[in-house]
Amino acid sequence: MNKPNYRKMKSPYSSWIAIVFATIFVSFSWPAEAQSHENFLQCLSLHSNGSSSISKLTYTQRNDAYTSILESSIQNLRFSTNATSKPLVIVTPSHASHIQATIRCSKQHGLQIRTRSGGHDVEGLSYVSQVPFVVVDLVNLRSVDVDVENSSAWVEAGATIGELQYRIAQKSRTLGFPTATCHTVGVGGYFSGGGHGPLSRKYGLAADNIIDARLIDANGEILDRKSMGEDLFWAIRGGGGGSFGIVLDWKIKLVPVPSTVTVFTLTKNSEQNATKLIHQWQLVAPNLPEDLFILLIISRANPGEGKGSIQATFTALFLGRVDKLVSLMAERFPELGVTKQDCTEMSWIQSVVYLAQFPGQNPEILLDRNASSKSYFKVKSDYVKQPIPEFVFKGMERWFEQEEGRNASINLVPYGGRMGEIPETETPFPHRAGNLYNVMYVTGEVEEIQDIRKYINWIRRVYGYMAPYVSKSPREAYINYRDLDIGVNEEDKTSYEEASVWGFKYFKKNFEKLVKVKSLVDPGNFFKHEQSIPSI
Ligand SMILES: Cc1cc2nc3c(=O)[nH]c(=O)nc-3n(C[C@H](O)[C@H](O)[C@H](O)COP(=O)(O)OP(=O)(O)OC[C@H]3O[C@@H](n4cnc5c(N)ncnc54)[C@H](O)[C@@H]3O)c2cc1C
Ligand SMILES: *[C@@H]1O[C@H](CO)[C@@H](O)[C@H](O)[C@H]1NC(C)=O
Ligand SMILES: *[C@@H]1O[C@H](CO)[C@@H](O)[C@H](O)[C@H]1NC(C)=O
Ligand SMILES: *[C@@H]1O[C@H](CO)[C@@H](O)[C@H](O)[C@H]1NC(C)=O
Ligand SMILES: *[C@@H]1O[C@H](CO)[C@@H](O)[C@H](O)[C@H]1NC(C)=O
Ligand SMILES: *[C@@H]1O[C@H](CO)[C@@H](O)[C@H](O)[C@H]1NC(C)=O
Ligand SMILES: *[C@@H]1O[C@H](CO)[C@@H](O)[C@H](O)[C@H]1NC(C)=O
Question: Which cofactors, by name (predicted)?
Fold first, then answer.
């Protein structure tokens, strides 16, 4: 596959580097690069502290394990092809001092760092760069230390959401944390971008429940909330990963959950009034009591299931018992026709497993980092502030009828509740009061690499179709559904004006403060990627 064109490098210097760099991987024949990479390894071993040697945790293309480690957490196969640029070195630290050494040595030898926790970055930014780079993969830093008495926990950045929920559940049936549904997402990236999910209507984002953190900055210093100061602590809770340093661990406030919750999943096709129900959902879901979350997924109808090409899947999590849920649904959303038979009561942790799409399985599945399937895909996002007219959803039928719509989905995550109460400036994440729901467009799983361009064009056309009905000026987007279509940094020097194009979509006016913080804490712009906060 060719490099995606949005990664195009504008300065002649950087395209030169990119070409030379691509050559090294094939031939190892570029002496200066080979030299800096040798020097880097030597530097690491010098910084290594005798009791735990970093060399055993360091992989180059000469190691047999290099490829399997690199590929281990890549979710989007678009960034795992022969043409994808690969890191010179992968470091898998088991101690903070290894990260400090990696930062200092990378700086000394002109290498960029990409930090990876769960590897779910939808544009691959945690493991792909167009300049010579090192991946710091936090897979060995994933302990979770739960303090039930104080309803808090320290979680290392390399842990997944599934590991976090599992460890909490081992200690308590009535404590949880607001996370995503996909359990293999890493807390390193997810918390850094805010993190919405089924508990957000009740407790806000994951980032709203972080009470301390340890960050290693561009000088290799370990900072906690007190020593980093409130502005930097603000920035790392929603300003997006990879801009301010490497988060080592987070201290989080756990939230109460009932020991028994109730779930249902109902799918309606066109003959069952799918578009009418989708339209109605917009009026209902963001205004429900905070204990009830109803996710809506629009996708192509199962073949043979009546006329019309789309279906609407409603998946609910209710923090309470079944009888209350059924009566609440009858009162607030009678059109959906939910009955007691549609619902299942279960423990909190079983609901995490259910929403992760492994209903009924043993919670141990949450510890399996390989459980989600890998494919080629592209994601885009929107925010909706006014209910969209029904004909727009009706019009989606023709999109899903196209070949590219076969595995695609449009996922609607309701906001409201607690999300609307938290001020827009409280964290960098600005999509609070006034937002009915978030939209995530996914091409769906494409199995063949040669098809992907077609699917990307399709999702861009759908995004164009939706433009009149979603937020405007700016057309807001969610940083965790990263989309390089909305703008990328220049490799050499990004101006505030250039970056503010994508910056205001993700952060609105909070972008200004993020740039101020970045310019203070990382004036040399050491931590950078295609959409990192620029240092001005
Ligand atoms: C299948 C799938 C399902 C998803 N579901 C949801 C969902 O339900 N809700 C939701 O909000 N999001 C969801 N996301 C998006 C997800 O939250 C983001 O992609 C998130 O950034 C992934 O975090 P990660 O640690 O897995 O990713 P990574 O790729 O490891 O990192 C993402 C970004 O953060 C940086 N980063 C990672 N670790 C650190 C660290 N320790 N310190 C500093 N920077 C770091 C990386 O360099 C990169 O820029 C989903 C994504 C996928 C692929
Ligand atoms: C060296 O590593 C060990 C174990 O990884 C750690 O406990 C110790 O604090 C480290 N020492 C320094 C000076 O970083
Ligand atoms: C996941 O895959 C990695 C290699 O990619 C392997 O080392 C690990 O054992 C696997 N884990 C599980 C639970 O299968
Ligand atoms: C990728 O590279 C491998 C090894 O060099 C080769 O066997 C394979 O055919 C290549 N794949 C593609 C799609 O070019
Ligand atoms: C709970 O927090 C308090 C205050 O921070 C602390 O003194 C106490 O030791 C903590 N309890 C436990 C069990 O760690
Ligand atoms: C669809 O909606 C109409 C009008 O509201 C209603 O009469 C009909 O019963 C609904 N169909 C189904 C299958 O629910
Ligand atoms: C994608 O769609 C095709 C054709 O409808 C189907 O065969 C394939 O299984 C789907 N893939 C996934 C992962 O659903």
Answer: FAD
